[in-house]
Amino acid sequence: MIDKPTATRNLKLALVLSILGVLIFAATMIVGVIVSHG
Amino acid sequence: MVTETYPTQAPAAPATRSDGLWSWISTVDHKRIGIMYLILTFFFFLVGGVFALVLRLQLSGPSKTLVSPEIYDQIMTMHGTTMIFLFVVPVMAGFGNYLVPLQIGARDMAFPRLNALSFWLLLFGGMVMYSSFLWTGAADAGWTSYPPLSVQSPGHGQDLWIVGLHILGISSFVGALNFICTIHNMRAPGMRMSRLPLFTWTIDMYAFMIVAAGPVLAGALTMLLLDRNYGTHFYNPDHNGNVLLYQHLFWFYSHPVVYVMALPGFGMISEILPVFSRKPLFGYRALVYSTVAIAFLGFLVWGHHMFAVGFSEPVQIWFMLASMSIAVPTGVKIFNWIGTMWMGQLRFEPPMLFAVGFIGLFLIGGLSGIMLAIYPIDQQVTDSYFVVAHFHYVLGTVPVFAVMAGLHYWFPKITGKMLDRRLAVQSFWVIFIGFNMTFFPMHGMGLSGMPRRIATYTNSSWTIYNQIATLGSIVLAVGVLMVMWNVLSSLRSSRTAPADPWGGYSLEWYTSSPPPAHNFDDLPPIRSERPVYDLRRERALAREGAAS
Amino acid sequence: MLTALIVFALFTAPAYANLATPELPDSTNADAMGNIYRAALGACIAIFVLVGGWLLYTSIRFRTRRGATPVDPPPQTHGSRRLEIGWTIVPILILAGLAGYTFDQLGAAENISTSRNALHIAVTAQQFTFSYTYPNGKPPSNPSILVVPVNTPIDISIVSKDVNHDWWVPSLAPKIDAIPGQVNQTGFTATHAGTFHGQCAEFCGAGHATMTITVHVVNRPAFQSYMASLK
Lengths: 38, 548, 231
Prior knowledge:
- By secondary structure, chain A is mostly helical.
- Chain A is built from one helix and no strands.
- In chain A, 16% of the residues are buried.
- By secondary structure, chain B is mainly α.
- Chain B is built from 18 helices and no strands.
- Chain B has a single domain, classed as Cytochrome c oxidase-like, subunit I domain (Cytochrome C Oxidase, Chain A, Up-down Bundle).
């Protein structure tokens, strides 16, 4: 098993990257809405 | 051949390890997951290849009726889709899965269960896409799937394509998270980023690009799905929508994705050349910087896929200059590779043959890319077979030469067996000849005016090019089958592989072939980017010292 | 290796015939286009010969025989800062040169004329035909054959009624997409009379391969009488 500090760092980084991904997806959708309906 | 073994050689596999089907289905071991990725992606390579043969047979002469245009369009669409999303992108994840933890001296990936999920989502996504063949037919608007055609496409093939691609996107995104966390948090002591093997560096960039670009494709596809099924008008100009919106979003992802596919291939070459030149990698730092530069610049050039849509001149010029500039870091790589070989002691074992073949052929593709970047030229030859030639020389060479090089290089490590050397050399030549016969004439086809994605043609002056290309595709297929046969028969042969059959430099060569479940019993000191080379040298010097 | 190169050259020979002349240029902007193309092709061939040659030479010069590996490894050179700088700057210069030459020729390669006596044609693309309308509002007498006069600037505006298409007559003009919801412009001035063929160059569905284009370029008097006959 991985030691706790490393596991925590992994989870933090994964969370940051996931949030980044969701934000980029949302931004794309917003751009789409603005271009086509704005 | 270096056959030195190390005292920490663990037995190939403990007798108690289970090998039943369930142990594979439930595995979270990165090595087993990597193997499953490789098997699945090579299967899709064969499927995509069969599609290509059908296309080539249909086009081998004018006015052929082997397949109807409707069927041709589905096969053409699924050929591209399969090769990109079900083969080249995930095959890198497969090699990455197997090798990255080993190369950094870790026991497994950061998230082993998430790793397994990535694989099963790949299988599931592929199945969803292919189920369309059994229903109303597969997607048929090209792998690029531009609206309005892809919005109007009747039946459910297009929807299954979109949903399948969403699933594959999640598989890929989640895998990328895993790679980034593993590479940045799980390296063994002494394994600084500046000592990372090039292949692992390229997987790091692969992952970052997927994280940044993947969600944009997801957005573009979601809007397509909504337009198709829920009455929205993102891409419908009759209701304020914008057709080009899709193209911008699609290519914003899809241009970086070509570097997603190419960079790990480059990483494999960067590992193989030094070992078989008996020298260190020339310009390690430059190769890392150029990898990062390509990854970054790759996000600025998407418009070069759209030079015929009516951009204003400043926009055309931007995309032209940005695209030309990518040639600089790419050239740096090629020069450093040749510099690695220069004044070396070259051993043309099969991995080296494929690697050197890759460099020569990728060079051709890179040069035709420079021509295409110049937009007045592109406006003549875009959407013609000239482009098909270009992208097969840059993107087709990656799986057919770079990944083949990697396959022949790491096969002993993964399976504990050696491939048949003579058959491997023969398959290289057959593949080399077949590949060039297939794709080089396509430059001529495009320059003669043959557009792409046509199910048939009547212009008989194109026939000779097409006949050569079709013959070439059959030769290429034979070469691929020869490699397959080599793999399957070698698995059953008695040619067992030592821990380090090639005189390797990176940590995977320290442990047994195949490695034990926990990867390493111990690690050598890591003081450079060549820890296993350093250890071998130390021992050689110690022996000389003892002898004198 | 040598055999492979010879085989490769033989099989690719047919491509060379057309490499030198991309789609016979029969329009005024084609000269400038041809210059840009030849400059780029020339540069690329030169680079291929130099770099490919260097790769080939290296592969042959430094190869070792199987089982005859020398005892001592070669010098373990890690890199050279000077070389890195050199082979970064030289490619930048080559690319800058190519780009500069392209800009220089770009004016002449422009195909949208500002000339007063330009003939304006409206092109409509739909699955799976192109249709044309002259300034007098009439279509050609044969709807699928566009008749135009020689040595006259032709301005084309193109729209699509359904999906994306692309009007491509290689001998006359660069391709231009027909995109629903926007009007695109292109143009050419034909320098020779004759019949020129092309076809749709943006995938548009099952009939994409059949969406052909025919342009008859005729001398000016012939064109005048043709236009008169369209009333």
